Amino acid sequence: MIAEKAYIYRVDQLVRNYLLADPVVPYTSIIAGIFMSKMAYNATNSISSSYYKGFSSLKNIQQVEWNNRGMSSVHAVFITAMSIYLVFFSDLFANRPDGLIIFRNSSVSNFSLGISIGYFITDLTMIFWLYPSLGGIEYVLHHLLSIIAVSYAISTGEGQLYTYIVLISEATTPGINLRWFLDTAGMKNSRAYTINGVMMVVAWLVARILLFIYLFCNLYFYYDQIERMHKFGYFLTFMVPTTLFIMNVMWFRKIIRGLVKMLTKQQ
């Protein structure tokens, strides 16, 4: 019992004094993000090859994309959970008089952003290496914008509230990946595929349309604080959400058309 408590204490001190120590958080978190992405990729490959009989019959590039989508789903679940907690449930960005919201950050918020940077670097590297098999120019643009914006937020501590609101949009990623999994597995006409399609439309509407409208309203409400940001941070705060919102609307139209087409065929 004493040995167990001593071990837990050492782990706690390691996390507090090294992993979450302010000077090294940007470095350790990014490395941890790359490492976790690799682990998620390998775990997806191991689980799929063991429990899905059709996995071995997929083409090599399909297996790579299968594992890549498993990796992106793990990241999406992690960053969505952290974003929702930090934005809506923690007191980090609460409306209180002790400091401007636009400049608030913590070791936990910085570490979580670093994990995302590690993932985006890993995924972007795979996209470039296998281009355009894992995604076209829109994916490259999305990842580059994400890396630049998140890197700025973690290095300066500015605008993390808006960075996390945007990252909540990753909640739609598991549904998108599940759609691809079902299609690749030959289950495009299944009930699960239809249900997932409907849920994906709802999730996209909430996380990538309505949430961005909430973000723009928040920008208006706290504009006097945003004006105090560095010019580059000010530019990113408006440019990145606006660009992503336009892309989200364009993709949403395609999703709606796909769902209508699928439901029409079934009828």
Which sheet architecture does the biggest sheet show? Answer: none
- Computed over alpha carbons, the radius of gyration is 20 Å
H/E element order: HHHHHHHHHH
Mean pLDDT: 90
Helix share, percent: over 70%
Distance between the termini: 64 Å
Given the C-alpha coordinates, what overall shape results? Answer: globular
Number of helices: 10
Which structural class best describes the helix and strand composition?
mainly alpha
How many strand units? Answer: 0
Low-confidence stretches: none
Strand content: under 5%
Features of the shown structure:
single chain, 267 residues, mainly alpha, 10 helices, 78% helix, 0% strand
Q: Helix and strand layout, with pairings?
A:
Layout lengths: L1 H18 L5 H27 L8 H30 L17 H23 L7 H20 L3 H8 L5 H12 L6 H31 L1 H4 L4 H36 L1
Helix pairs in contact: 2-3, 2-4, 3-4, 3-6, 3-7, 4-5, 5-10, 7-8, 8-10
Structure, described:
- The protein is mostly helical.
- The chain has ten helices and no strands.
- It has helices at residues 2-19, 25-51, 60-89, 107-129, 137-156, 160-167, 173-184, 191-221, 223-226, 231-266.
- Helix 3 runs antiparallel to helix 4 and helix 8 (191-221) runs antiparallel to helix 10 (231-266).
- The chain starts with a helix and ends with a helix.
What is shown here, in short?
The protein is mainly alpha-helical and 267 residues long.
